[in-house]
Amino acid sequence: MAGNMKKIEFYKMSGAGNDFVLLFGKKYEKLNLKKLAVKLCARGTSVGADGLLYVTKLSKDTVEMRYFNSDGSEAFCGNGARCCVWWASCNGVINKKKFNIKTIEGVLKAEIIAKEKIKIEMPAVDKVNLNYRGIYPSPVKKLHFLNTGVPHAIIPVNNLKSLDVDGLGNKIRHNKVFGRQGTNVDFVAVKGGKVFIRTYERGVEAETLACGTGITAGAIAMSVSKNIKRPIFCIAKNGEKFKVWFDYKSQTQISNIYLQGPAKQVFKGEIND
């Protein structure tokens, strides 16, 4: 670690059970954030989390977020972005209900809807690939593919509760049709007009309790393929509720994508560097 830093001050955040270690301020910018993510996110030996959020204030109405998965890989994270927005509001970093968050996918609009309820703009989607061609393991019969800041394979299933998400998700995550980078994998079921979703996250390499980009991807894919009325109501593995809005003209014309869901600060702590 750089300098004479003895302790690292952190905040534990949760976006519908998708948990994060959050660091704030430029005093941490010279640290090796990728290695720090691996260290701090290790469950059982450290704080434990799905990923690391590094936040700085850019102006009176903009914060910047960098996100690192628990394996150290840097990416965009929808749940992480909402957690950063809620954290900035709770801790007086931004004193507005509407402001911006700069991410690896550009500057996105954010809004505090109510306590621990955040609505955030999501990255643009270039194309919804319905019935994406490939050779997939049983029982996968149909797969849709799109990128909501990170790639997601959307798989409609009937037995969502009993599904082996880690086992099947890992096989599809590394399927050669998705190239060297692989993909996140979302298993979805539509019941009563709502989309229920379980996600295997690339970079975490396991199922997480919720995935913001996955919920967005699942909502778009199922709305387009099944003509579900917008906004789409989505339910994560742990029962947390989300809403997804978007404008749709064609499979290559999708705009104004927004995700609303929970975010909360769990606790504040310090750890030796």
Can you tag this structure with a few keywords?
273 residues; alpha+beta; Diaminopimelate Epimerase, Chain A, domain 1; 2 domains; 17-stranded mixed beta sheet
Structure report:
The protein folds into two domains: 7-119 and 263-272, Roll (Diaminopimelate Epimerase, Chain A, domain 1), CATH 3.10.310; 144-261, Diaminopimelate Epimerase, Chain A, domain 1. With 273 residues, it is α+β, with helices and mostly antiparallel strands. It is 17% helix and 43% strand. The protein has a 17-stranded mixed β-sheet that branches. The chain is globular.
Topology:
Elements: E1 7-15, E2 18-24, H1 33-41, E3 51-59, E4 62-69, E5 74-75, H2 78-90, E6 98-103, E7 106-114, E8 117-121, E9 144-147, E10 151-156, H3 165-173, E11 184-191, E12 194-201, E13 206-208, H4 212-226, E14 232-235, E15 241-250, E16 253-262, E17 264-272
Parallel strand pairs: 2-3, 4-6, 10-11, 12-14
Antiparallel strand pairs: 1-2, 1-17, 3-4, 4-5, 6-7, 7-8, 8-16, 9-10, 11-12, 12-13, 14-15, 15-16
Please count the helical segments. 4
* CATH architecture name of the largest domain: Roll
Tell me the name of the CATH homologous superfamily of the largest domain: Diaminopimelate Epimerase, Chain A, domain 1
Shape: globular
Radius of gyration: 18 Å
Poorly predicted regions are: none
CATH class of the largest domain equals: Alpha Beta
The average pLDDT is 96
Going by helix content, strand content and strand pairing, the class is: alpha+beta
